[in-house]
Give the backbone structure.
Amino acid sequence: MLSLRRGSVTAVTERHDGVVRLEVDGRPCVAYPGVTGPVALGDEVLVNVQAVELGLGSGGFDILYANLTRGLDLDGDPGAHVMKLPYTPLQHAVRHAEEDGAALESLNGLPVVCCSLHSQVAPACAGLGGGKRVAYVQVPGGALPVSFSDTVRALRERGFVEVSVAVGACVAGDVACVSTAAALVWAAEQGFNAVVCSIGPGIVGTASPWGHGGLAGAEAVLAARALGGKPVLAVRYSEGDPRERHRGLSHHTRAVLALAEGAEIAWPEGLAVPEELERVTRVDVTGWEEGCAGLPLSHMGRGPDEDPWFFAVAYAAGRVASGFLR
């Protein structure tokens, strides 16, 4: 069941497009005004406190569930009738790209970088390089609101990403699509040079082989390959993770490879290839640190100094994809 608490907004600390960081009765909280309406100091609100009550490391804040002061009797998006989060207490209608297009039968070689973790997105985009039209496609498996990502915001400011697409249950993107396949087709129709596909920040995980959000990467690989794109897998690799299942080649990547074949597997020159990877595409990643300069690089609290190969391997995926640009 939902764990809801009534409170008052006691501080507004940050406002960005699609997300507001605030405090409710002194506790950190996040609001998505595109879903629950505008929010201001002093508003009476309902907040979902369950993540904080459970002590989740990636959920150390409450989520604004309803604004009782200025979030009632709001109008929906004009002309929208396809629901996000259908049949849940947060269902709301959003215009989806499929209603106006997304009908191509082939991606015609569009490169698609497939990430299983959001912290791979920045180095992968840096590997693609600036000056290209890149669409970021967010699929379920981590945080659902695209606007929650500081990484995507930074990539847009730097020109590495032009537009964001919220797929399925994901919300608060520039564009909405029902499926990963439709999002890839829409990007091709709109003339984008490349797509980077990933889950949002945080990851749904159970420490089991198949019960984790990283498997969204398999869906992206399969959709891109079936539609005539060029999927490139960003391998999750770490020499700094204390957990054995994620040290070296992560079990998340092994699971993706077990379900989806046909992707180019990018690999940096100078790093020994794990035995589980039978075929890789080697690429020179010299200067990856400079290529990622100024971008938010953090993985489980570790930066490029503590876990350099994690970021270099993701950067390699972008470099390989850049070779397929048209």
In short: The chain has a mean pLDDT of 93. DSSP finds nine helices and 17 strands in the chain. The radius of gyration is 20 Å. The longest helix spans residues 308-322.
